[in-house]
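User: Predict the complex with arginine.
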Amino acid sequence: MALWGGRFETGPDSLFRELNDSLRFDHRLAEQDIRGSVGWARAIAGAGVLSPDELARVEAALAELAALVKADPGLPARGGDEDIHSWVERELISRVGDLGKKLHTGRSRNDQVATDLRLWTRDAIGERARELWECRRSLLGLAEREAGTVVSGYTHLQRAQPVLLAHWCLAYGEMLERDQGRFADASQRLNICPLGSGALAGTAYPVDRDALARGLGFAGPSRNSLDAVSDRDFVAEVLGACAITAVHLSRLGEDLILWGSQEFGFVEFDDAVSSGSSLMPQKKNPDAAELLRGKCGRIVGSLVAILTTLKGLPLAYNKDLQEDKEPLFDAMDHLSMCLRVVPRILDTLKVRRGACLEAAQGGYSNATDLADYLVGRGVPFREAHEQAGRAVRLGLSAGLPLEGLSIEQLRSVAPMVQADVFERLAISAGMAKREVPGGTGPHAVASALHAARTRLDASRPVG
Ligand code: ARG
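Assistant: Here is the predicted structure with arginine placed in the model:
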């Protein structure tokens, strides 16, 4: 059953239907379409279009439909209808007869689909928030398990200064916490109800839009009907949040891939999140982490797709807007998979503390500490930097770390050096100097970890 046709002499061409029909993907909105339909039935009953008895029959039939979909989510997809709205209406009519034909009074698929998609996105955000929270928890768990582990920190992927592994965990924790905040912001902004906007000009029936909106859990009704039926900012915004999250997971994946390589050897992935090679028997590949990195491409692609679709659309609804769903669904599905895999990777990650420490001790990562030591002896920093650089050059030609040079050798390039310099070149001394809030000093990290735990506990998503 098509929802239109009176004006047409012939039916649609089959290729056109293939292009035009959206049930193949929008069947996923069945639950939201039924929820929205219950809301609308109540609204038009309030406006006198349905009698209380009619409303009760429509609601009962919609509840039955909702139960069927819950038991068999694939059911609507097999319907052969143009879209999910057509499916729900046809199923309703098949249950309550002509009464079902009253439901669409004063409603358009334009305000309907905009409402459905907001409901769906709100639900999906709730799930992503829970998954992000679990990732944050796993990062903190790793930080706590590896509280004393020192690892080399990098800039330009060159050994730079030692950091605590927990500090690295907290860095990703910061990113994911911001991501959770972005989803929460987007959820708040999208939480308005387009129903009552009609096709574009507002419904002609005196429905109580405030009550309708609140009944569906929205903060209130949309303010402008032209905007409400054509606005997909919320899709772009949520895909923006998805894309940024995916970028963060990609960077996490990349760090772990590097760390897991034989060249670094800092970590080993559990067999359960690794795969082998069909040819090389010895291989154990970090596919899970690689897909954290790889999935980012399609998720960013979804953001670009919706922005490009929206660009240049005249007001109000245009069929182009039907292209909003697949990128959103795809990005959400794949981001969800990635977010759910992160705890599996982190919770089973084996950290090779010796290799981490060895890397932190190598590469002259304490050269800054030598410069700082000289500053303490009254040498201006720029000069201290120069002298420490010369000490590194000396070490390189002697094949020794800074602390392996004799005091005479050190003095030959940095005359202010005293015997106490060697204490300052120890890794623990360098770390202890970085107790500034936000730094990698052990106390600073311990209190950051404590604060992060507190924020985690306070931000557990409900449900
Ligand atoms: N399947 C359509 C979509 O996703 C529903 C709205 C159709 N509206 C219309 N005027 N043809 O956008």
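Residues 37 and 103 are 8 Å apart (CA to CA).
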